[in-house]
Design a protein that fits this description.
The complex is a heterodimer of chains A (about 500) and B (about 400). Chain A folds into 2 domains: about 5-360, 7-stranded beta/alpha barrel (Alpha-Beta Barrel); about 380-485, Up-down Bundle (immunoglobulin/albumin-binding domain-like). Chain A is built from 18 helices and 8 strands. Chain A has helices at about 30-50, 60-65, 70-100, 100-125, 130-140, 160-180, 195-200, 215, 240-245, 280-310, 335-345, 355-360, 380-385, 390-405, 415-425, 430-435, 445-465, 485, and strands at about 5-15, 55-60, 145, 185, 205-210, 225-230, 235, 315-320. In chain A, the strands form 2 sheets. Chain A has a 5-stranded parallel β-sheet. Chain A has a 3-stranded mixed β-sheet with strand order 5-7-6, covered by helices on one side. Chain B is α/β, with parallel strands linked by helices. Chain B folds into 2 domains: about 1-185 and about 370-390, Rossmann fold, CATH 3.40.50.2000; about 190-370, Glycogen Phosphorylase B (Rossmann fold), CATH 3.40.50.2000. In chain B, about 45% of the residues lie in helices and about 15% in strands. Chain B has helices spanning about 15-30, 70-95, 105-115, 130, 140-155, 165-175, 200-205, 225-240, 255-265, 280-285, 300-310, 320-325, 340-350, 355-365, 375-390, and strands spanning about 1-5, 35-40, 50, 55-60, 100, 120-125, 160, 180-185, 210-215, 245-250, 270-275, 290-295, 315, 335. Chain B has an 8-stranded mixed β-sheet with strand order 3-4-2-1-5-6-7-8, with helices on both faces. In chain B, strands 11-10-9-12-13-14 form a 6-stranded parallel β-sheet, sandwiched between helices. In chain B, β13, α12 and β14 form a beta-alpha-beta unit. Classes of the chains: A alpha/beta (about 500), B alpha/beta (about 400). The interface between A and B is medium-sized, with 21 and 20 residues.
Chain lengths: ~500, ~400
């Protein structure tokens, strides 16, 4: 039997639709401020401290926004932390104190320090987050992946030109920000349909992740085998049995009673309770996270060994998670991650970047099925009757843009640029997801309506030579690759 | 630095001016320590791969090119697939830093190869379909070619044009920022303009010793403006007498031009030579009293440069790249573009003033030295270096 059991690849998918400058609270850029403060700044620290070979997917549209932090957006983030965050923690801790709940009040004061730490990090160079991530990749072992420009579900795009626009724009911005593109691209929502790999290969993509759970069933050895497609692109399956250890909303680690409750909130949406309903105890929760890390590592080894037994060769166990899970939705997530990194070597589990992992275990040839990592694992989250209108809007806008691009003259280039950016904004898979899951009330519908109106105006300016709109849309897709739309 | 240059023609296969241009550029780059590979179409008997004058040439063989323009577009697509296949194979053996394609004819293969090699794509736009057809690019196949050019210009990290006029034109019709476009003129090597031995006999076959010879060179197509020169001739003959014209070249407008000459009563005043070889062409510049370049659309104006390098006075239309090739009245004269009367006036001045002609020829022989190929190649090499340091599309 093969002596090498293979290795674990952790893939952290980092994404946020473009919210900078589009609303503040309850929906809008405060999502971004929360994520920067409680997820991305601590994660950058964690990666620098540990030097661990973790693969980090950064969607271009998230980077579009992180790139604005050195400017006025970062000033708004800092005043959010120094004013809003500070005052709501004070008010709620005082209120809890007054109503005779001193333990909860103390926990609110403690949790407030998370945001004070974020202020310190931002004042100490944290606003240059993109540069810090670039350093992690060039000097450390972090493997950076990009994605399509605005996280569009690629199999649902209407045209080759639209697909090229998403890919070329995303890759161009990654190359500018991080110096080069290593070939790793996160397929938004793991959305794949057969044939997609041809256009991916044309854009220099070498590796993607897919979710083939429905084809082989949870727990099958196939999920530990990178698949080489005819176009040469390697599709690395994510192993849902492993992902679910963290992700499952009934049995996953984060729902354990000791962890902080994400849903129960104070007047100002603070969360001082544990899932048990008792005042949150950070020491207990931290200890549990380390215990869960030991459990996770042991189960990863079991998965790899089961694969080795079935196939007599090493496997690549890829566990992909939303980065925002670690610190935002699952408050203890980054404690858990640090513990996994410490625990893995002591139990004999190798951790690798995905590219290194593929080289180590090799590839197999196998047909891939159309799928996503959604629930269910098809595209219905983004194209079911509930969101059919949104899917239709996006396709309509795409086809109009492509048609106009075919006849645009030089004078219309800035209008076409603006139309393309509005299209990219419309194509984010997030809007349909928020509607399907009812996560953000009317916000996604308002965003769709706004971008559609601006898109119509830009296309209108092309048709009747009307007032030429500003080609820019805040900092969305500054590296727009218009050539992708012009390809005959 | 290793560069892959793509062209649809390369000596010994010669369709027009591109083959010579690419060869001179490649050889002069090679002389400056740039490793140059050329990927181009070859003749049936050409080897698939050979080193010529320091340049590695990789060739594909293609069926003969169709004359019909729609079939031509399909043929070009096939040629690009073949160039791509060979380019992929070559790329497996060599690591390229830059891919440099010449004109839309090789845009597809260049784009794919640059992406595959993860290196910048530089394109030289020698002429545009928009310019060749005075803006009439709404119908197939012109619309297709225009579309490829526009995409290629927007896609490339850097665009090279041969004149400031072309830079403005390209920026305008494709909607590019001017800073993405570099101007690098075409070069000329006077030592290659070798005439035949017996120039007197050659001249005698076209004109009597006392007759003035006016030379027109180029493809016989509308945008070269030869019809303007023909229209100017009857008046010129009337005023100066003893003027004969020589038209060297072939093309789609040949029938119309011959008919026009006939209608203007010029049958006995000149000769349509058809396509001629380089040795004859270079000799014609030596025996002609005046070379006229009456183009309506002219990205550069190599004919004027060749005339100047061969000691023949030249008169050019005041348009396009000709303004840069003939930048002042010390090296050549310019007439109002598209105006046969102005052409006739200036031609009369030149043909009747020997002192003026001598002065122009003397000044022009100095002026052409500024179009030195080594200098052109140095500018191209600088641009490659520059695009490598500024482009993110690098390994």
């Amino acid at each position: 039997m093969s002596r090498d059991r293979g290795a674990l690849a952790l893939m952290l998918h980092s994404h946020m639709p473009y919210v900078e400058g589009f609303g503040t609270w309850p929906f809008g850029e405060e999502w971004l401020w929360e994520a920067v403060s409680t997820v991305y700044l601590p994660l950058a620290d964690l990666l620098a401290d540990t030097g661990a070979p973790i693969t980090v997917g950064l969607t271009p549209v998230l980077c579009d926004q992180l790139e604005t932090l050195p400017g006025p957006a970062g000033d708004r983030l800092l005043s959010f932390l120094r004013e809003t965050r500070r005052s709501v923690h004070e008010e709620d801790s005082n209120g809890l104190e007054r109503t005779g709940q001193p333990e909860l009040a103390e926990e609110v004061r403690r949790a407030g320090r998370d945001y004070e730490n974020a202020v310190e990090m931002l004042e100490g160079g944290g606003r240059e987050l993109i540069a810090a991530l670039a350093r992690l990749a060039s000097e450390g072992q972090t493997e950076l992946w990009t994605s399509s420009a605005t996280h569009a579900l690629l199999p649902l795009l209407a045209s080759d030109a639209g697909l090229r626009l998403q890919l070329a724009t995303g890759i161009a911005s990654h190359e500018r920000r991080f110096g080069s593109f290593g070939g790793g691209l996160w397929l938004p929502e793991c959305g794949y349909s057969p044939g997609l790999e041809r256009e991916l290969a044309d854009h220099g993509v070498r590796t993607v992740c897919v979710d083939q759970t429905d084809a082989h069933g949870t727990g099958a050895p196939e999920h530990l085998e990178p698949v080489i497609t005819e176009a040469g692109v390697v599709a690395v399956p994510i192993d849902w049995a492993t992902v679910a250890l963290v992700w499952n909303d009934v049995t996953g680690y984060p729902v354990h009673g000791t962890y902080r409750d994400y849903h129960r909130r104070t007047v100002h949406d603070l969360r001082p309770w544990s899932n048990h309903g008792t005042p949150y105890d950070p020491a207990q929760a931290g200890a549990l996270a380390r215990e869960h890390a030991r459990d996770f590592v042991a189960r990863c080894i079991d998965r790899l060994d089961a694969h080795r037994k079935a196939r007599d060769r090493p496997g690549l166990l890829c566990c992909a998670l939303d980065t925002e899970l670690l610190g935002h939705w699952w408050y203890e997530g980054q404690i858990w991650l640090r513990a996994v990194l410490e625990e893995a070597p002591s139990q004999g589990l190798d951790l690798v970047g995905i590219t290194e992992g593929v080289e180590r275990v090799g590839t197999v040839q196998r047909d891939l099925v159309a799928s996503s990592w959604g629930n269910p694992k098809d595209f219905s989250t983004w194209d079911s009757p509930l969101v059919a209108e949104l899917a239709f809007e996006a396709r309509r806008a795409e086809l109009r843009t492509v048609a106009e691009a075919a006849r645009v003259r030089a004078a219309g280039m800035s209008a076409l640029e603006r139309a393309a950016r509005e299209l990219l904004a419309l194509q984010s898979s997030d809007w349909a997801f928020q509607v399907t899951r009812d996560l953000a009330a009317d916000y996604p519908l308002e965003r769709i309506a706004g971008h559609r109106a601006a898109h119509d105006a830009a296309i209108g300016a092309l048709a009747d030579s009307g007032a030429v709109p500003d080609p820019a849309l805040r900092n969305l897709a500054p590296d727009l690759d218009l050539a992708a739309l012009l390809a005959p | 630095m290793r560069v892959l240059i793509l062209s649809w023609e390369y000596p010994p296969l010669i369709e027009g001016g591109l083959a010579r241009h690419v060869r001179k550029l490649a050889e002069n780059l090679a002389a400056q320590d740039v490793e140059v590979h050329v990927l181009a179409r070859g003749l049936e008997e050409s080897p698939a791969e050979e080193e010529c004058d320091g340049v590695m040439v990789h060739r594909v063989r293609e069926p003969e090119r169709p004359r019909d323009l729609t079939e031509f577009v399909t043929w070009i697509e096939h040629m690009n697939s073949d160039l791509l296949a060979v380019g992929v194979e070559v790329g497996d053996r060599y690591r390229f830093d830059v891919v440099h394609g010449h004109d839309w004819l090789v845009a597809n293969a260049s784009d794919h190869l640059a992406k595959r090699f993860r290196c910048p794509f530089v394109t030289t736009i020698h002429a545009t379909e928009f310019g060749r057809h005075q803006g009439w690019v709404d119908k197939h196949p012109q619309s297709y070619i225009h579309g490829v050019e526009r995409w290629m210009a927007n896609r490339a990290e850097r665009v090279i044009t041969c004149s400031a006029y072309m830079r403005e034109h390209v920026a305008d019709i494709y909607g590019l920022e001017e800073q993405r476009i570099a101007v690098i003129p075409n070069g000329i090597d006077p030592s290659e303009l070798v005439p035949m031995d017996d120039l007197d006999a050659l001249r005698a076959s076209f004109a009597a010793p006392d007759e003035r010879l006016v030379l027109l060179v180029g493809r016989l197509v509308y945008e070269k403006g030869f019809q303007l020169a023909l229209e100017a001739l009857p008046g010129l003959i009337e005023r100066v007498g003893n003027v004969r014209f020589l038209i060297a070249g072939s093309g789609t407008a040949e029938g119309e031009l011959r008919e026009l000459a006939h209608e203007l009563g010029l049958d006995d005043h000149g000769t349509f030579l058809g396509w001629i070889g380089d040795d004859v062409l270079h000799s014609l510049y030596r025996i002609a009293d005046l070379t006229v370049v009456p183009s309506i659309y002219e990205p550069f104006g190599l004919v004027a440069l060749e005339a100047m390098a061969s000691g023949c006075p030249c008169l050019v239309a005041d348009t396009g790249g000709l303004r840069e090739v003939v930048p002042n009245e010390n090296v050549g004269l310019r007439f109002h573009s598209r105006d046969p009367k102005s052409l006739a006036q200036m031609a009369e001045r030149l043909l009747t003033d020997a002192e003026l002609r001598d002065r122009l020829v003397a000044e022009a022989s100095e002026h052409v030295l500024t179009f030195d190929w080594a200098d052109v190649a140095r500018q191209a090499a600088e641009l490659y270096g520059d695009v490598l340091t500024t482009s993110h599309r690098v390994r």
